């Protein structure tokens, strides 16, 4: 190791370079995550990872960064804001016939963009420090990124399991550089959720089973993104119009009043996904889906899961004969999994139609009785 390098000065340069590359904040920590291993194992033992087999496959390696990139002794953790300029949260959630897409997924896929910036940061450091060996990560390897970001002073892990920053809330992506140089580490900030349990209460499916613990099997983000099978019937009505991910636990968090808008053009909404009706996206065929989601994180779930999610949203929408017609039309060409969700949606629409018809019939019957009564002789 080159002993002539002033690592304190280098750390300050790294943070400045990170800002120049578009990161909102950069922090540095060691690689020791031993205190998280027991909690990680308990989470896996409870099967809270659902069908995400890769979680169990790597097991405790997720808490051992040097097992992923041997020789690493430090982690450079960075965050990048993603909140679009016009977020339109409640506006869309309160419109049951509109499609709600998690705000992080409205623009281009963040993985390539953030990883590219991290790679650029690593290259800059290497120009200054030839002995550097680094590897960037953006959800691309089994690593506990939030505990690392917490150790690096970027914020604290909230009760919804997301990282919260006192000055910026939680609307940001995280990425890491694993490095082999002894940079000075930053101070971890204290957890500041206090007695607040708003995120636990607001979760539509009660997926946050206890503070800091999420049962992915109930989480709408898991159900609409990670799950490749049928969505459990009992959870479908709770999903509402959320067709890709969910932001509710972030929306309710008091710290997000400090949320910062993204300045990245790539993270701004595309294809009107921030204000489009369910019938609009349901009308896409597979070719249109692939065209409209090019460069988007949405594409990775595939056309079948996309249709499955929208079918659930249409079932949860208020009764509309156009919805029924669209569901019946799409059913003819749908896969068996999607067809099952369409049938469920049709049942929901039928039930709502009946609920609308019955009160109307009751009013007509009452009006008829009054008319008959008016026409009867007084002594009848």
TrEMBL record:
SUPFAM superfamilies: alpha-helical ferredoxin (SSF46548). Binds 2 [4Fe-4S] clusters per monomer. [4Fe-4S] cluster 2 binds at residues 203, 219, 246, 249. It comes from the Bacteria. Pathway: tRNA modification; tRNA-queuosine biosynthesis. [4Fe-4S] cluster 1 binds at residues 193, 196, 199, 253. PANTHER family: EPOXYQUEUOSINE REDUCTASE. Its EC number is 1.17.99.6. It comes from Thalassotalea eurytherma. Keywords: 4Fe-4S, Cobalamin, Cobalt, Cytoplasm, Iron, Iron-sulfur, Metal-binding, Oxidoreductase, Queuosine biosynthesis, tRNA processing. Catalyzes the conversion of epoxyqueuosine (oQ) to queuosine (Q), which is a hypermodified base found in the wobble positions of tRNA(Asp), tRNA(Asn), tRNA(His) and tRNA(Tyr). Gene3D superfamilies: 3.30.70.20. The active site is at 139 (proton donor). Cob(II)alamin binds at residues 62, 139, 163, 174, 221, 246-247. Belongs to the QueG family. It is found in: Cytoplasm. This is Epoxyqueuosine reductase. It catalyses: epoxyqueuosine(34) in tRNA + AH2 = queuosine(34) in tRNA + A + H2O. Residues 183-213 form the 4Fe-4S ferredoxin-type domain. Its cofactor is cob(II)alamin; [4Fe-4S] cluster. Pfam families: Fer4_16 (PF13484), QueG_DUF1730 (PF08331). Monomer.
């Amino acid at each position: 190791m080159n002993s002539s390098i002033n690592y304190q000065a280098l750390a300050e340069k790294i943070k400045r370079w990170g800002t120049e590359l578009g990161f909102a904040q950069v922090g540095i920590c060691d690689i020791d995550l031993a205190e998280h291993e027991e909690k990680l194992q308990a989470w896996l033992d409870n099967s809270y990872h659902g069908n995400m087999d890769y979680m169990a496959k790597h097991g405790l390696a997720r808490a051992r960064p040097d097992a992923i990139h041997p020789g690493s002794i430090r982690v450079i953790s960075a965050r990048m804001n993603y909140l679009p300029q016009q977020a339109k949260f409640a506006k869309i959630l309160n419109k049951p016939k509109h499609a709600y897409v998690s705000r992080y997924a409205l623009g281009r896929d963040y993985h390539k963009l953030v990883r590219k910036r991290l790679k650029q940061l690593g290259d800059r450091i290497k120009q200054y420090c030839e002995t550097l060996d680094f590897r960037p990560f953006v959800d691309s390897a089994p690593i506990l990124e939030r505990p690392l970001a917490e150790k690096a002073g970027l914020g604290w892990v909230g009760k919804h399991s997301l990282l919260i920053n006192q000055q910026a809330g939680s609307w940001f992506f995280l990425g890491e550089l694993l490095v082999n140089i002894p940079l000075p580490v930053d101070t971890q900030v204290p957890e500041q959720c206090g007695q607040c349990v708003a995120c636990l209460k607001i979760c539509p499916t009660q997926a946050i089973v206890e503070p800091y613990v999420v049962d992915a099997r109930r989480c709408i983000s898991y159900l609409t993104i990670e799950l490749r099978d049928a969505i459990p019937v009992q959870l479908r009505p709770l999903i509402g119009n959320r067709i890709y991910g969910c932001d509710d636990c972030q929306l309710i968090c008091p710290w997000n009043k400090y949320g910062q808008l993204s300045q990245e053009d790539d993270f701004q909404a595309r294809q009107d996904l921030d204000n489009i009706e369910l019938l609009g996206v349901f009308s896409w065929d597979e070719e249109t889906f692939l065209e409209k989601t090019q460069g988007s994180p949405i594409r990775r779930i595939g056309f079948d899961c996309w249709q499955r999610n929208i079918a659930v949203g249409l079932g949860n929408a208020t009764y509309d004969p156009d919805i029924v017609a669209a569901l019946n039309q799409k059913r003819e060409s749908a896969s068996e999994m999607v067809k099952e969700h369409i049938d469920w949606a049709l049942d929901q629409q039928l039930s709502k139609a009946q609920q609308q018809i019955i009160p109307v019939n009751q009013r007509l019957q009452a009006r008829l009785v009054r008319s008959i009564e008016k026409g009867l002789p007084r002594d009848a």
